[in-house]
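Changelog-adjacent note: as of this version, every example in the card shows the full chain rather than a window. The one below runs 480 residues end to end.
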Amino acid sequence: MTLSSTASDVINYALKTDADYVDVRIENTFSNYVGLRNNSICGVNTNLQKSIGVRVLYKNCWGFASSSSLDNSSIKRIVDDAIKCAKKTAANNSKPPIQLAKISSRKTSVSDSCEKDPQFLEQKDRITLLNNINKKTSSVKEINVLDLKLLENHTQKLFLNSEGSEIEQILIRASLFLGSSVSGSSNFQKIRSVGFGGVGGIELFEKNDFDKFHDSFIKTLPEIAHAKLIKPKEQPVILNEEMGWNLCHEFCHAVEADLILSDLSPLNNQIGSKIGSEQVTIIDDASFKGYGEYYFDDEGVKASGTLIIEDGILFDFLQTRETAGESNVIPTSNGRAESALYYPQVRQSNTFFEPGNYTFEELLEVTRNGLYVCDSFGGNADTIHGNFQLDAQYGRKIEKGELSDFVTGFSIVGNLYTVLGDINGMTKDLGSFPSYCGKNGQRVSVGAISPQVSLKRMSVISNIAQRQIRKIDFTGMKEI
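Full-length structure tokens:
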């Protein structure tokens, strides 16, 4: 029996129980991981995972169940569990009726293109790639530990619902995380971690873009090893692409409609209000070929761009079908789940500042004296009150419009609802990197995409704790 016929049988069986709406997600994911530490292979894992998730709407109440087994008895059981859950909730429900925003039903099949599909690649090819990267990187004498982590995924996603949609999409990703522990004359351990990747296979790491990225990583290692600590103070800053995205990403949690409807964000009545400078336009676009790309979200909504802020004016929120129905607006293709085992919720995809009109040299000249803030260790934000902290891996002083000494051991802090007003320029070009976002126990891939961003002022504080990291955990350090 094909996956499509299996999903159709689930729909028909669930509708016989008087469900008002049913959708089924089935996923086949091939994943491969290879890790290299100090010239030695430290991990190899190839995995094929199947999963199914069934969601039913019964008398304005949801029921959801999922399984990693696709045999007939398991599928029948999870449908029964989803219905049972919905009926139990409906028996005690006093909440307003759930209204799903209307969408077009679609029958289509789409796929990412890939030169070196993870499913058909030999492990020796991956190891050869990592060895070549390792050889070039390990020449830096300040390195104590060098980690390389290659991740590849080929995911077949099937979505069917009782409204007639039948959607198959194949998403292919490859990412490479490079991490190092370095030390200089002070013998303090400093951590450096970067990522590169996107849509496609390991051919992404055999192109000029990766070579430039890798060369830049190598050049910064000895400088960071010998960098001094910075004194905390408020000053003008320029955020590099990764830090610019980190700021944008943390703000955009506050425009996720489920948080707004739950009073966990104060932006509910701010549509049309000016909340940033005229330099600020923010877009979320799952159709952009970044690490957060997809063709349809996990509710069958076609991927599209959402204009969140235009010229500093708040324009729109990110929606699922349920939040859009409650707010009487159009869903924005941001209903996402970690896999078919999880329930969809409002999530970002590729979220970024629209590029500006400056070159980097022009931003330096505008800033004159301040700090160039580079590469994220992660961040956290309180969407209710707006306070945030973004941890930086390193920085460079800006003196008289030019880059100067390297510095480490600091974070930037501020308020989400005032900081956008301090942005006074962005570069013309975008950087794009792989990252992940965690929310309510689910983790999804997102595109870390941004220009370089200049701010008139930003509070810089000491953060010595990051120098005490003893175990390099790329996933944890990159999760926002």
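Structural remarks: The first strand starts at residue 21 and ends at 37.
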